[in-house]
Amino acid sequence: xxxxxIITLGCPKNTVDSRHLIESLKRDGFSYVEDFKKADFxxxxxxxxxxxxxxxxxxxxxxxxxxxxxxxxxxFGCLSKRYGEELKKEIPEIDxxxxxxxxxxxxxxxxxxxxDIRESNNQDDYTVEPPSYRYIKIAEGxxxxxxxxxxPYIRGRFRSINPDEIIKEAEEFVKAGIKEIILVAQDIxxxxxxxxxxxxxxxxxxxxRINGDFWxxxxxxxxxxxxxxxxxxxxxxxxxxKYLDIPMQHSEDRLLSLMGRRGTRKEYLRKIRExxxxxxxxxxRSTFIVGxxxxxxxxxxRLIDFIEEVQFDRLGVFKYSREEGTKAYSLKxxxxxxxxxxRYHELMSRQAIISLEKNRNLIGKKYDAxxxxxxxxxxxxxxxxHAPEIDGALIIENTTNLKAGDKVNVLxxxxxxxxxxxxxxx
Length: 426
Ligand code: SF4
Description:
Layout: E1 3-8, H1 12-27, E2 31-32, E3 41-46, H2 51-66, E4 72-77, H3 78-90, E5 96-97, H4 103-113, E6 133-137, E7 139-140, H5 151-155, E8 159-160, H6 163-175, E9 180-184, H7 200-208, E10 215-219, H8 228-236, E11 240-245, H9 253-258, H10 265-278, E12 283-290, H11 297-310, E13 314-319, H12 337-360, E14 366-375, E15 378-382, E16 394-396, E17 407-415, E18 420-424
Parallel strand pairs: 1-2, 1-3, 3-4, 4-5, 6-9, 9-10, 10-11, 11-12, 12-13, 16-18
Antiparallel strand pairs: 7-8, 14-15, 14-17, 15-16, 17-18
The structure holds iron/sulfur cluster (SF4).
C-alpha cells in the first residue's frame, strides 16, 4: 500500500508544492502513479483564489469521492486551509485535510498508514511538469494589501526563500537537462526585501552564471516596482527571456485605489513605454479584473481603450470574485453577474483581435522553440513569448525524432488567435 497520485489545481506555486511533496514521499518509499485506480492515496492540492477555482477544487474532490472505494483521500492547499472545517462537515469521505506548507505533516500522516516501508524499484516518474521546464518558488506569501485578494490571509506574509537553496535547485534542474527555469512568487519584485543587500537582481545574476543552455522566465512582477536596474539585468542577460508578466488589474485611478493597488493609468503607460524602450521586442502579459465593485460603464470602456492603446501581447481577464474576509467583500456597489459576464466577453474578444494580429506578425520568422509534449505525431512547444500552461502554444505537425525537452529552431508558418504553427528547420 504505497502508491499515491496527486491532482494539482491552481497556480504554479501549487505545482511547486506538489513537486516537493512528491519528492518527499518518494524519498520515504512511496511510488507515484498516474492512474488513480492504481493509487492507495489520492492527494488533491486545492486552490481558492476565485470562485471558479473553488468550484474546480470541489468538483475534483467530489469526483475522487465517487471512485474512492478503499483509497485514502487527502485534501490540502489553499481551499482546505480556508474552508477546512466546512469541507470536513460537507464531504465526510475526505480522510485528512491539511493546509498550505504542511507537506511534512502529510508525509507523516501517510507513513502512519504504512508499517513496512521498503524501497521500490518500480516507481513511475512523476508527470507534474514535462521535461522541458520547472518552476522554482522564490518566495512564499504576500504582504501587499490588494482589497480583492485572499492570498495574504491564506499564504501569510511575504518570505523570501534562501538564495542558496534556489541556486542549488536551479543547478540540479539544469544538470538534469531542464531547459527552462520559471521563477514564481506572488510578487517577485519583492524578493530579498528581508535579506539585506541581496535582491532579485543579484539572484538573477547568480542564476545566469550557472553553466548550461537554458531559459529563465519571470512570473508576476508588481508593475511599478520594475525599476531601471532590474530592466538592465533582464536586457543584459541572454538567459532571461524577454517576457514579463505584470498584473495591472485595472487602468482607472479610482478603481486602482479602491483595489489597494499602487499606480495610476499615467504611471502604467509610462512604465510600459520604459519597459519597451529597454527591452525591444519584449512580450508583455497582464491580468485585469472586470466587474470590481462600483466599476462604472465609462470606466470599463476606458479600460478597453487602455488595452487597445497598450496592445498587450497576452492578457488574462478575471471576473471579480467576492471573497469573504477581504476588504472589497463589504464594498457597496457589487456588480451583477450578467454585467461581469458581458464585460469579460467584451474585453476577451477585443484582445483576441490583438492577439491574432500579433501572432500573424510572427509568420515567416525563425525562433528557438522548446518542446513540451509529443502527442502522436504532433509536437506541442513554445517560443520565448509563451509561458507554459498560461499562454498559447506552438504546434509542429508530422514530427519525427522530436521528443519532449528538445530545443529546436522553427519557422512560423501559420497563426491563430492563441496558437501558432511552425516547422522545424535545420
Ligand atoms: S500582490 Fe495583491 S493580488 Fe497579488 S497576491 Fe499580493 S495581495 Fe494578492
